Every structure is written in C-alpha cells, then in structure tokens.
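Title: [Solved] Thymidylate kinase 3D structure

Original question kept below for reference.
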Amino acid sequence: MQNPSKQGKLIVIEGLDGSGKATQTALLAQNLQRGGHPLLQVSFPSYGQPAAGALEEYLSGAYGQKPEDVGAYAASTFFAVDRFASFRKSWGAHYRQGGLVLCDRYTTSNALHQLAKLPPPQWQPYLDWLCDLEFCKMQIPAPDLVLYLDMDPAVSQQLMDRRYAGGGHRDIHEQDVAYLTHCRRAADFCIQKLGWHKIRCSSATEPYPIEQIAGEIYRKVCEEIISIC
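Solution (posted by the thread starter after getting help):
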C-alpha cells in the first residue's frame, strides 16, 4: 500500500486551444527550477505513443468531422487511456516518491472539451463519472492545483492563425469556433465546481503580455502549493 505522505504534487495548466498552455507551462517550469524546486514536466495528449492512437484518429476526424460526432463519454475514454499509460510508464514513480509534476493538459481537458457536447443539466453527472473513471477506477492522481488560462476565443483564434500560417492543420476541436465558445462556458462551470483557478490572459481583443501572465501563475503556485515554496 502506498504511503500517502510520499505522494507528490500535481499542477495542471489548462485552457482552450491557442491560450498559451505550452508557453506558460515551460515558463512555470523554468521559474520553479530557478527557485530550487525540481520537477517532471508532462504534456498531453501523448502524440505518437501507442495508447494515444484512438485519440489521434478522433482529433484527425477519422471518426467524424465535428467534435460532437463522437459522444462525450466515448471520446473521454480515448484520452483517459493515454493518461493512464503515461502515468504507469513515465511519471508515476516520480510522483509516488513525492516529486512535483507539471502537466500541460490533463483530465481537466476532458472536463473542458467533452462537457461542451452535453446539455447543462448533464454537466454535473458527467463530471462525477469522469472523476470516478480516472481518479478512482484508473487510479491516476487528481490534480492539486489547476490553473485555467482564460483567453477570449476571438483572441485565441488570432493566435492560432499565426501558429498555422506556416503550415499544419487544425484538429477538429481547433477549427470549430462555435464548439470552442461552448467549451469556454463549460470552463466557467468547472472553475466553480472543481475549484480551478482562473488566470485572465487577454482583453476582448488582445492577449496580455506573456511575462505578466507567467508572473501571476507563479505567484498562484507559491500561494497554493505551500510545501514547495
């Protein structure tokens, strides 16, 4: 049996596509390491890994060209299997030994993206099911802190336009603006029900400076994850 005192800390950076998750995760990792807090950095989905095969096909449109072509519960299992495999194969030992893990996306992405496919009266039952599936039945750890990067969808679309200007293709989530707007409403529900912390990242027309956002994130981590700061 695991000794609870040896459990690590799990911090998650979450947000809509184009909100700057990868950038802010990297900056937070740098700030924590400079402060003498070693960590393991993980990103989801685990593209290219066997356990991510179904979710990659889903995102490419192999199962339908719109997100809602695959139901919330079915799509959730694709991503959950990827996280289970990653925990067991790459970062579980570090976490169980008391290490700090920093995730770019996590179970929180299922909550954000799949909730948007359901009518609001079904949101709480879905969250109950999701937490039971991943944290109880699959026994991957629940986050200690979730930082949600809140960026206006119009601004995030502008940033994604720049990202893909040189080539590449948007997945079925990224190309559906109406769906991403639904996801933002779902995020407000998750913030209220799951205790996420909202980090405002833009006005209605412009993103805030990257360094300003990074500073707010680091301060929040130091406030919430007391044992490492």
